[in-house]
Each structure stands twice: as structure tokens, then as C-alpha cells.
Specification:
The protein is of the alpha/beta class and 527 residues long. The chain has four domains: 226 residues, 3-Layer(aba) Sandwich (Rossmann fold); 42 residues; 163 residues, Nucleotidyltransferase, domain 5 (2-Layer Sandwich), CATH 3.30.420; 38 residues, no CATH class. It contains 18 helices and 16 strands. Strand 15 and strand 16 form a beta hairpin. The N and C termini lie far apart (79 Å).
Length: 527
């Protein structure tokens, strides 16, 4: 490393020049905060040894890798200073000690010790302290309690990090630093400020590469985005994702209806089964009966997979949710098939700036391809009223439910969705847009004490979230919904219902009993 290899940016120079005893830095990712700390450590050691003193710096990073990296930066800048000023006589030496501890030893006797953040390793020192990426330290409160006595005898402490929510010691320290009369000297550098001061980064390229709005705000704009306020945390969303969800080629495959479609799928799988078995028999020639039976068992085990191929008909009950929009937001249809007690996402259709007629045509075309389509729940708030009425006329009132998005209704929908996800009874596609949409929703409480759910991502106002919530609601209401076959039976019974004046008492009683039995089978009389 030569003297021309590095020139501090203005905010780094300001950090090094600030000699306050208590100093805290809130800085965006990759803006050189660890570099600034390494510079300050060397500058302080240089000044101490020039004055005939020795000093100690204790550097805590979030893990072993980060600790070792910070140690190398401190050593390299020490060598740089030694080359440039010849003040140390020789360059500092980096020594790896036991317990993942790195020690930089300087010619005048000063030391810098880098170690991973741990309550046990933090004890036993007396010197200056650097807490690097403090917001990401596990057990940050315990570490703070163990390490703070290190600076008791007038030493300095530096706390520096990118935000990581509000449930950690760094957030508490930064909040304290913003109070009037605080002992802390606070430095803040967002990515925008860093670029203005000369950081060579393409902002548009950087912004385009990180599609999650919360991550952008926290990692680069230095906002403390609290994960606890997200209605669906990242881990919960990822736990429900599956590689097979959303892979069904519903648009390009005209599904057959009724039992015929299912029989056709069975025949195709059976044909593959027979072909595979025959080919194996031909290949083995004189193989024994036991081997042939074993092959047959393997093929039978594969039968469910053959039946559940991407082009196979959807044989389970199908439920859908439609969040309607026209101009500014996405209009999203979320379609699920119920397999056992799990709702599998089969198709997600996002429509932007399409006419209501075009949207309705696409939605009806998709759901009509499903042999066992049961229910469609539609956002009938405002602009959604007209598409909801048209969907009722085309699909039937018994298969379409209008949902008015009032505050209590949205709270119920959101709560039901989270409960289903926590029970792992829904499968989601692995998709960045869907993931960001689901995570964007926040629950807040108004001054009147009412819950409010709202979210926004790039190009969406949580439209996929509400479409999924509507689909889950449709699936959860299935006990009181009649499917297409049962609906046809009911319509036929009602259409053929003769007046009592044209029926004898016995015939009228028989018809009434038949209608009552059909209604009972179709969901406790709900129609």
C-alpha cells in the first residue's frame, strides 16, 4: 500500500479529527466506516508513541471474519503511516493469538486487539474501545455491560454501525445521542451524503439492484426500520416459500373439466407407468419377478408426482382472491389449490392499467379452466364494485363474494393470513416482488385506537398481499361454499321445480325432500 493509494473523504477526516471521548457513528453500508476507525486507531497510537506513551485499543466486531478484516485494516494503515512519516521506525506487526484474537503490535509498545463480539472475550482489558457494526452484535446489551468498564480510567469509546432495527443497544445509544446535552458526539453519513462528498458509487445502479424498500431505507439511508412493525417478517415469508408453488402453466393449458379431466390425467400417468415398466423389462431381459415388482413399486411411488406435473389439471378445490385496481396500483389475482389442508399457490396474475373488461376476461378465463373452482373473493371497495358485479353475473353469485375493505375487515384478513402462514398452511412462490409486497405491510394504531394496515413497494401498494389474503379468506370459508358440480345440481332442481298446483301431495313431498337433501350436501343450506 502506498501513500497515493488512499485519501480520506471529508466525512472520514471529520471522524478522525473528532477527539471526543464518547463518539458514535451512524453510517450507510460500504461508506468506509471501518476504514475511518482504523485510521483513528493509528493516529491515536502515533500521537501516544510520539509523546513517549503507550496505549491500547480493543476492537470488537460482529464475528470472526469481520474481526480479522478490521485487524488487517488497522495493520495496513499502520504500515502506511510508517512508510509516510518514518515516525515508528518500523511497521506494526499483526499476530494471530488463541481464541480468534488478532493483535497488532507497534514498535513503541502500543497494541490494538481485534476480537469477535462476545461477553467473555470483552472482559479483562483497560483501554480505548471500538464497537464495529454494533447493531449486529448478538447479545448487544450483555456485551455493553461487560465492555463498558474497559474505558473507566478516562479512555475513549467509539460505536459505529449501520442500522439494524430498533431492538438493540446501538439504537438506544443513537437515540440518546440525539438528546440535548448528550455526552455523545454523533456522526451520520447516508449514501447520498457520502456520494456528495466524493464516494465513487453509481447511485442509480445501486438503487436498482436493491428492490426491497425497507432494506434500501435501512442499509443506505440510515433509517431504523423496525422489523417488529412488519406484519409478515422475512423469516415467516421464507418459511412458506416452495420451489413448486406458482409453477403451474395455467394460462397456456386448457384444463378439462369434471371427472373426465381427472381421468385423462390418470390415463396419461398410467401410460407413462406402463411405458417405463416395459422399457425396464426390455432392458433387463431375464430379470426375476422380484426385480420387476420392485420397479413397479418405484413407479407407483412416482405416480403422485406425475399427476402433479406443471401441465396436469388442478384436481383439488381452487380458491382465488382478486385485489382490483385500474390506474395507479396493480390489479392482482391470486389463485390457490387446496391440497389436504394446505393452500398451494398455482398462479399469480398481475395486471397494470388494463380496462376492467380486459381484467375480468383474464380472471374469468383463468378460473373457468379449473375443474373444481369454488370461490372468488373480490375487493369490492370503490372501483372494485363494478368488476365484482360483472364477475357475479359471469361466474355465479354462489361463487363470488364481495369484500368491502373497511378497517375491521382488513384487520381480519391480515390476521387470518398471518395465522395460516404461521401454521405453514400456505405455499408461496419464490419471487422477489411477491416477497417484498408481503413484507411491506405494517400495522399501526391511529390516535383513535384503530388498527391500520398499509404498505408500499416499488410499483405496488401491497396489492399482492391483499390478493393473497382474499384467496386465503376464500379457502377458509370453504365449508359453506358449494362447488361447480353441486351448483349445477341445485340449479337443475330449482329450474325443474313445479308448482304445487301441478303436483300431487306425494310428488310435492318427494321433491321437497330431494331439494332439502341436495342443500344439506352442498354446505348447510348456504347458496
Amino acid at each position: 500500500m502506498s501513500t497515493a493509494a488512499f485519501t480520506p473523504l471529508p466525512y472520514q477526516h471529520k471522524w478522525v479529527a473528532d477527539q471526543s471521548r464518547f463518539k458514535i457513528g451512524l453510517m450507510a453500508r460500504q461508506t468506509g466506516k471501518s476504514t475511518a476507525c482504523a485510521l483513528e486507531v493509528n493516529a491515536d497510537i502515533l500521537a501516544a508513541e510520539a509523546a513517549g506513551r503507550t496505549t491500547l485499543w480493543v476492537l470488537l466486531s460482529r464475528g470472526e471474519r469481520q474481526s480479522a478484516e478490521l485487524a488487517r485494516k488497522v495493520r495496513d494503515f499502520g504500515r502506511l503511516i510508517a512508510e509516510g512519516r518514518k515516525a515508528l521506525g518500523q511497521a506494526p506487526e499483526l499476530v494471530e493469538l488463541a481464541g480468534n484474537v488478532s493483535e497488532i503490535r507497534y514498535p513503541g509498545g502500543s497494541r490494538a486487539i481485534a476480537l469477535p463480539a462476545n461477553p467473555d472475550t470483552a472482559r479483562g482489558y483497560s483501554g480505548n474501545v471500538v464497537l464495529d457494526e454494533n447493531a449486529f452484535h448478538a447479545n448487544s446489551d450483555v456485551i455493553w455491560t461487560a465492555l463498558y468498564p474497559t474505558i473507566t480510567r478516562g479512555y475513549k469509546i467509539r460505536v459505529i454501525s449501520t442500522p439494524n432495527g430498533q431492538q438493540n443497544r446501538f439504537y438506544q445509544l443513537w437515540t440518546e445521542a440525539q438528546q440535548p446535552g448528550s455526552r455523545w458526539s454523533a456522526h451520520q453519513v447516508t449514501i447520498l451524503q457520502a456520494i456528495e462528498q466524493g464516494l465513487p458509487v453509481d447511485l442509480d445502479e445501486l438503487r436498482g439492484g436493491i428492490r426491497d424498500e425497507d432494506a434500501w431505507r435501512q442499509e443506505y439511508l440510515c433509517e431504523f426500520v423496525d422489523e417488529a412493525t412488519a406484519w409478515l417478517p422475512w423469516e415467516l415469508i421464507r418459511s412458506c416459500e416452495h420451489a413448486d408453488a406458482g409453477k403451474h402453466r395455467l394460462q397456456g393449458h386448457r384444463l378439462q373439466t369434471g371427472a373426465t379431466g381427472q381421468a385423462g390425467a390418470t390415463e396419461t400417468a398410467d401410460h407413462r407407468l406402463k411405458t417405463g415398466a416395459t422399457g425396464q423389462a426390455g432392458a433387463t431381459g431375464q430379470a426375476g419377478a422380484a426385480g420387476a415388482i420392485g420397479e413397479l413399486i418405484d413407479k407407483l411411488k412416482a405416480l403422485p408426482r406425475l399427476l402433479r406435473g406443471a401441465d396436469a389439471p388442478l384436481t383439488g378445490p381452487v380458491y382465488a382472491g382478486w385485489d382490483v385496481a385500474r390506474w395507479h396500483d396493480l390489479s392482482v389475482l391470486w389463485l390457490c389449490e387446496k391440497v389436504g389442508d394446505v393452500l398451494w399457490t398455482r398462479h399469480v396474475l398481475a395486471m397494470r392499467k388494463q380496462t376492467f373488461d380486459a381484467q375480468l376476461s383474464s380472471v374469468c378465463r383463468l378460473v373457468e379452466r379449473c375443474p373444481r373452482f369454488v370461490r372468488l373473493c373480490i375487493d369490492a371497495t370503490g372501483l372494485g364494485e363494478m368488476p365484482a358485479e360483472q364477475a357475479e353475473r359471469r361466474l355465479g353469485r354462489y361463487r363470488v363474494e364481495r369484500i368491502k375493505f373497511t378497517g375491521p375487515v382488513k384487520e381480519t384478513l391480515a390476521a387470518d393470513l398471518r395465522r395460516v402462514m404461521e401454521d405453514r398452511r400456505v405455499r408461496l412462490p419464490i419471487d422477489e416482488d411477491i416477497r417484498a409486497d408481503l413484507h411491506s405491510v405494517r400495522r399501526t394504531v391511529t390516535a383513535a385506537g384503530n388498527a391500520r394496515f398499509a404498505g408500499e413497494t416499488d410499483g405496488s401498494h401491497a396489492d399482492r398481499f391483499w390478493a393473497l389474503a382474499l384467496a386465503v379468506h376464500a379457502g377458509g370459508s370453504a365449508a359453506n361454499v358449494i362447488d361447480a358440480t353441486q351448483a349445477r345440481l341445485l340449479r337443475n332442481l330449482v329450474a325443474r321445480r313445479p308448482g304445487p298446483e301441478r303436483d300431487g301431495p306425494a310428488e310435492a313431498a318427494r321433491r321437497r325432500a330431494a331439494r332439502h337433501g341436495a342443500l344439506a350436501r352442498c354446505g348447510k343450506g348456504v347458496w
